[in-house]
Write a structure and sequence with these properties.
- The complex is a heterodimer.
- Chain A is mostly helical.
- Chain A has one domain: ABC transporter involved in vitamin B12 uptake, BtuC (Orthogonal Bundle).
- In chain A, 73% of the residues lie in helices and 1% in strands.
- Chain A has 15 helices and two strands.
- In chain A, strands 1-2 form a two-stranded antiparallel sheet.
- In chain A, β1 and β2 form a beta hairpin.
- The longest helix of chain A has 26 residues.
- Chain A is globular.
- Chain B is α/β, with parallel strands linked by helices.
- In chain B, 34% of the residues lie in helices and 25% in strands.
- In chain B, the strands form five sheets. In chain B, strands 6-7-8-3-9-10 form a six-stranded mixed β-sheet, with helices on both faces. In chain B, strands 16-19-20-13-21-22 form a six-stranded mixed β-sheet, with helices on both faces. In chain B, strands 2-1-4-5 form a four-stranded antiparallel β-sheet, covered by helices on one side.
- In chain B, α4 packs across α5, α8 crosses α18 and α14 crosses α15.
- The two termini of chain B are 48 Å apart.
- The C terminus of chain B is likely disordered.
- Classes of the chains: A mainly alpha, B alpha/beta.
- The interface between A and B is large, with 35 and 38 residues.
């Protein structure tokens, strides 16, 4: 049958509101919003409070948010792939305690680092195996681990603080390189690698597919189990990195290290534009989110506000950013 | 032959879904597959697409025997399926949706985004589609556009056979035309098509050969030129004697429900009918004909724009389901899993749910004992097969789940019961039993409305059968008065091609 070629105009009608990705989409992205908020806030603060605009204060902010940012990079991958890891705070405390004890026993820098990374990765691997092989929901597994690991670190120290931990890792906490804290350089380096992975590697793209539509992803040939184990193991590895930063800055390690840390990390990720439902988000957004949280906390100290308000502002920020997302999504659907 | 199936046999849960089916598709052939609901089309497609394994039979591709264990296997053999509900990643771009899982890579193994984009734009232009579609977010596209992207995906994977499972059910006329243009262009490139649809005019426009299925068997495979629409309908309906169920419609009973001029724009128009006490009125129509929408309007889920509903001679207003329940109207929804049952909860809870006006003290305190007391006799009289009232609803078979829902409706002794596809997804025995319960219900004086897209069921149950087409009442038949082919013709829209129908009245 001779196909009349009348279909081409019909197709044009099918697509009334076509447009590519341009500067407008870039501006609409969450990363841009946060960057603008950050710049405005820093400008206002710098004009109003001279003590805010010192190199020392900038270093303080970066140093304070480095741990959140480092673990946030891993958490972004976890959440993008449709999971969550609430055990990172307790995992941090286990890593810190083990490293602290090794240092007390006279371990060198290299051994301390190796131990931190190994313990962190092992915990992450266990999470990943339980979730991937055991097919238990991530929030259940990591919530269980949150409680178990807390007890583990408590038992390891006999419930006492570790004091007199040698300061041999201190460079990782307050050392600077080209004016910026070394810890922040690590966060940026890990962030850059993760961004490349998520953006350009096929398996990185698969994480988005997994979070967006797991069943379709499986049918399309995504190695679901391997990707799942990978994201939790990587997050564990990054917790190990963060524990090095932590031990470097504290000669006394308390057993309540990292209580509530998971919430700070998840807050940074969510504020940075990663959808808590999975399938969407960037590491750059997470780094900016962590920076925003740190800057607000610092600003509150500078203006002499009560520390209590930090929680209000952090919570408000999460509700605001997530709420804006919902509104935008609804606007697009109508 | 590109694809040949020989002696494919498949049973599930006591249903003989495919009975020794032979089926062939030639290179670049457009082959239509038609049949009533439950005729076995979907099962056959699933076997070819690797979603189901046949119990017996052989599959050949290019004359070589193959086994298709998974959808991946089917892909590798060049078979791709476009389902009615597109399976997509809404937050990823069109390009990524096309290549996900089979990314093009550059020298160092990165995703070669530029090459992927080029390829998708090429494919889109080949299909005479807008190449700029490539950069869009998948979730921003309409269902029709998403289907077209999935066709590109099939082509990117070098598919030689694309299966379309009732694509036009969600497409507009214009979108269907676009799809047909695409199918013809693919044919020129040597790609074969299996096209499933209820709409015979579409089949006659696009297909070269037509295979007609009925009750899990292939009734006929013929070139389209040798067929008329009337013949296809006759073959689909078969010579089934819908053994007129020996049931006397109650004569002269007072109408329980009368609906006049009911209209909801875009869904149905000007619907008039009445149901007497003890009468079973059937609604038959294709999916999307509007019968379900009428039921939803009467039950207050999506109220009508205009028209009146009278219950036992009094005009009533039904703005939401709660009001319908208070008036004594009950609805068994089509999709019991999402609309009806609380699967993790026990049977007695499921039966009691929504009936707390009757089962509580001052609407405030619910007695588990009353829940049990209400559930037990109903479970017994409806023959729910379960260890006890505490069994989880999710553990029951489809037929028993349906009975639990039916029991819930009956707690409040409704005057009018509307059943939307009451036997969908249940096995043969349970189906018989549910039919028996429906007759009992009517014999007890309840006015019953049954919506069914399965013709034998509609013919068996209905004292009067109302055929709905495109949101209007097309014709009305009395029990035993009509051949199934005539009803099917009326619903599909080609009654002229069928001899022997005797539409009675109509609208």
């Amino acid at each position: 049958m001779a196909a009349p070629n009348q279909t081409a105009p019909a197709v044009a009608d099918l697509l009334p509101r076509i447009r590519g990705y341009g500067w407008r989409e870039a501006l609409e992205a969450r990363e841009a919003t946060i960057a603008v908020v950050l710049v405005v806030m820093c400008t206002v603060m710098s004009i109003a409070y001279p003590q805010f605009r010192t190199l020392g204060n900038a270093q303080n902010i970066l140093q304070a948010v480095a741990m959140t940012a480092i673990v946030g990079v891993g958490m972004t991958m976890v959440i993008v792939s449709g999971g969550i890891d609430v055990s990172v705070g307790s995992a941090l405390s286990v890593c810190a305690v083990v490293v602290g004890m090794r240092l007390q026993d006279g371990a060198g820098v290299v051994e301390a680092i190796a131990v931190a990374l190994a313990v962190g990765t092992a915990i992450g691997l266990l999470n990943g195996l339980l979730i991937g092989v055991g097919r238990i929901h991530s929030i259940i597994v990591t919530f269980g681990m949150l409680n178990i690991l807390r007890v583990v670190s408590f038992k390891a120290t006999g419930g006492k603080w570790l004091s007199g931990v040698p300061g041999s890792l201190s460079y990782f906490n307050d050392g600077t390189l080209l004016w910026l804290p070394f810890a922040w350089w690590m966060a940026m380096a890990l962030g850059a690698v993760a961004t490349y992975y998520l953006w350009r590697r096929p398996t990185g793209r698969h994480l988005y597919a997994l979070g967006g539509n797991p069943e379709t992803a499986r049918l399309a040939g995504v190695a679901v189990l391997r990707r799942t184990i990978f994201v939790y193991a990587i997050t564990g590895l990054f917790v190990g990195v963060a524990s090095i930063v932590y031990v470097g800055g504290n000669t006394v390690i308390q057993t309540n290290v990292g209580v509530g840390f998971e919430l700070r990390v998840i807050a940074a990720v969510v504020i940075g534009g990663t959808s808590i439902l999975g399938g969407k988000g960037t590491v750059i957004g997470t780094l900016l989110g962590a920076l925003l949280v740190g800057t607000i906390e610092n600003a509150l100290v500078v203006v002499n506000a009560k520390a209590l308000y930090t929680g209000v502002i952090l919570g408000g920020l999460i509700l605001l950013t997530v709420g804006l997302d919902m509104l935008r999504r609804r606007a697009r659907e109508t | 032959m590109l694809l040949s199936l020989r002696g494919i046999d498949k049973r599930y849960f006591g249903v003989h879904a495919l009975k020794s089916v032979d089926f062939d598709v030639g290179t670049a052939e457009v082959h239509a597959l038609v049949g009533e609901n439950g005729a076995g089309k979907s099962t056959l497609i699933k076997v070819i697409a690797g979603a189901e394994q046949p119990d017996e039979g052989e599959i050949f591709v290019d004359g070589e025997q193959v086994t298709i264990h998974s959808t991946q296997d089917a892909f590798r053999l060049g078979v791709a399926t476009v389902y009615q509900e597109p399976q997509v990643f809404p937050d990823l771009s069109v390009v990524e949706n096309v290549f996900l899982g089979r990314e093009l890579r550059d020298a160092v193994g990165n995703v070669d985004a530029a090459a992927q984009r080029r390829r998708v734009r090429e494919l889109l232009s080949e299909l005479h589609l807008e190449p700029r579609l490539a950069g869009r977010r998948m979730g921003d596209l309409s269902l029709a556009e998403q289907q077209l992207v999935l066709i590109c995906k099939a082509l990117a994977q070098e598919a030689r056979l694309i299966i379309y499972d009732e694509p036009s059910a969600i497409l507009t006329q214009r979108e269907t035309d676009t799809l047909f243009g695409v199918i013809r262009r693919l044919k020129e490139r040597g790609v074969a098509t299996i096209y499933i649809s209820h709409r015979l005019e579409e089949i006659f426009e696009i297909a070269e050969r037509v295979t007609i299925m009925k009750d899990g068997e292939v009734v006929a495979t013929r070139p389209r030129r040798e067929l008329t629409v009337g013949q296809v309908i006759e073959l689909m309906a078969g010579r089934q004697l819908h053994a007129a169920h020996p049931r006397e419609a109650p004569a002269g009973a007072a109408p329980a429900l009368r609906v006049a001029g009911l209209t909801r724009s875009g869904h149905f128009e000007d619907v008039d009918f009445e149901v007497a006490r003890g009468e079973i009125v059937g609604f038959f129509g294709l999916i999307g004909s509007g019968a379900t929408d009428v039921a939803h309007a009467i039950y207050g889920i999506d109220p009508a724009d205009s028209g009146t509903i009278e219950l036992e001679g009094r005009k009533i207003r039904v703005g939401k389901p709660k009001q319908a329940v208070q008036h004594g109207i009950a609805l068994l929804p089509k999709d019991r899993k999402t609309q009806g049952l609380f699967l993790p909860l026990p049977i007695d809870f499921n039966i009691a749910a929504g009936n707390y006006r009757l089962l509580s003290w001052l609407h405030a305190i619910v007695f588990r004992s009353r829940e049990r007391a209400a559930a037990r006799p109903l479970m017994k009289s409806l023959g729910v097969k379960a260890p006890g009232p505490g069994t989880q609803a999710g553990a029951l078979s489809g037929g028993n789940q349906q009975k639990v829902l039916l029991a819930r409706l009956l707690v409040g002794r409704p005057k009018v019961v509307i059943l939307d596809e009451p036997t969908r997804g249940v096995d043969v025995d349970a189906k018989e039993e549910i039919h028996r319960l429906i007759f009992q219900l009517a014999d007890g004086g309840t006015a019953v409305i049954v919506i069914s897209s399965e013709l034998p069921e509609a013919l068996k149950l209905a004292d009067r059968l109302i055929v709905v087409r495109s949101g209007r009442i097309h014709s009305v038949y009395r029990r035993g008065e009509v051949k199934s082919a005539a009803v099917l013709g009326a619903a599909i829209g080609d009654e002229g091609a069928v001899n022997g129908g005797s539409p009675d009245g109509g609208s």
